[in-house]
């Protein structure tokens, strides 16, 4: 089973930036849809960004224009560049491989990475 390891979270002031990384233990990044989720305390994980094999990206409205998802196929790593961070972006962020049609997570979750945004 492929494992996913997220990193790059931390404490940042509102308006600041962070870049999250998700390293996969297998060669899945180049051949699959990959996505970033976030989870607020006591809530379910919600998909916030995805990148398809052809490079097409999708974002939820709340992060459009501020977040950018990208990938490095050679490193089997997916990134989430987060700019202009807002307090409401504070959450635990996870990545996963998505079903190509239904956009549902296909792998076991990693440990996630905590993002904290101070106002």
What features would you describe in this structure?
It contains no helices and ten strands. The chain is mainly beta. The strands form two sheets. Strands 2-10-9-4-5-6 form a six-stranded mixed beta sheet, with no helix packed on it. Strands 1-3-8-7 form a four-stranded antiparallel beta sheet, with no helix packed on it.
What structural category arises from helix and sheet content?
Answer: mainly beta
Number of helices: 0
> Which regions are unreliable across 5 or more consecutive residues at pLDDT < 50?
none
Strand order of the largest sheet: 2-10-9-4-5-6
Q: Helicity range of the residues? A: under 10%
Oligomeric assembly = single chain
Overall pLDDT, averaged? Answer: 96
> What proportion of the residues form beta strands (DSSP E)?
over 45%
Largest sheet descriptor: 6 strands, mixed
Task: Summarize this structure as a short list of keywords or feature phrases.
mainly beta, 49% strand, four-stranded antiparallel beta sheet, six-stranded mixed beta sheet, single chain
């Amino acid at each position: 089973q492929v494992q996913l390891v997220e990193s790059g979270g931390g404490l940042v002031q509102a308006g600041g930036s962070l870049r999250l990384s998700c390293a996969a233990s297998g060669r899945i990044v180049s051949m699959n849809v990959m996505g970033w989720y976030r989870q607020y305390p006591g809530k379910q994980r919600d998909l916030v960004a995805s990148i398809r094999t052809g490079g097409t990206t999708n974002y939820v409205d709340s992060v459009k224009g501020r977040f950018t998802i990208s990938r490095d196929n050679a490193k089997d790593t997916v990134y989430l560049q987060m700019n202009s961070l807002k307090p409401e972006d504070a959450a635990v962020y996870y990545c996963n491989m998505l079903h190509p049609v239904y956009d549902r997570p296909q792998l076991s979750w990693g440990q996630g990475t905590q993002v904290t945004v101070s106002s």
